[in-house]
Task: structure prediction
Amino acid sequence: MARITFTGNVQPHVPCPTETIPGDSVADALGTYFEHHPLARGYVLDDQGAVRRHMVILVDGIPIRDRARLSDALARDSEVFVFQALSGG
Amino acid sequence: MPALTEKHRQRYDRQFRLGDIGEAGQRKLLGSSVLVIGLGGLGCPAAIYLTAAGVGRIVINDFDTVELSNLTRQIGYGTEQVRQSKVDSMRDHLLHLNPDANVESVGHVMEADELQRRVAEADVVVDCTDNFSTRFAINAACLAAGTPWVSAAAIRFEAQLTTYHPRDAQSPCYRCLYPEGTEAAESCLAEGVLGPLVGTAGCVQAIETLKLLLGIGRSLVGRLLLFDAMQMSWHEIRLKRDPGCPACGDSPQAATS
Result:
């Protein structure tokens, strides 16, 4: 069961509450999550299902490697954190 | 380390009364060198507080000129500095604040060789830039030199901060967190940014830099701080070094990436 959390500043724009979801990979868990919260999908993924270039998905503190298919494995107690990369200064 | 004069004792009195700083810490700051890259909403407060704190040598870098629209957040400048060079204006401001400071201004975009040299000369680099390509270049230079750097970014009501320390085996680098090709979806130009929000982030960068120079406290290495000013909340995300990182991993593909 992976715990999926979105950065707080996304939540006013797209409903994306923290949820604990089963899944062996990021694709599995986020696939289920997006069934519950379909508006969040387009915020994170493009029309090919790849992670948008301004988004970062961390699994247990490390960004996922497979940004095209999200095949990175999850442990039973993984923490998945989704946030937007910022560069403004 | 430089000796403290009576003027130093008066100026920095409230600071070296802090037990974790003391006279030895103040002398350490006076003997330190910091490179501040970018003199916008982050760089203004960071450079000002570091100079006020008595960091002995500050190198400031920005190629841009002051615009009227900068003045909501870029607190090193006034209306009379509009259209003037940011580094020259900031240098004047810093020397007015602390005439003892050794301030060097670099008013052009640094190419890789110069960036590498200046990063190697600094004890800490403060990343106050506004684009990913410069941040990747700072990451490469800091990895090569082993120089720690404090990074922040902000937009609208939100900011992100962390510290990278190449000599700490547990520290991730910028490439661990952001893959090549990362792009900003939004800019402050288009989306706006709240002045005190980015100022807060710049102040946190100054605090973190002082801690690194002094060798005190717990640094932000391995932690990403997310500040949401709308909710007035701070959130902390744990970051790990990625052994597969192409820049700092166990088999780096290119030292400059």
Notes: The first strand of chain A starts at residue 2 and ends at 6. Chain A touches chain B at residues 7-9, 12, 52-54, 56, 58, 60-63, 65, 67, 81, 83-89 (CB under 8 Å).
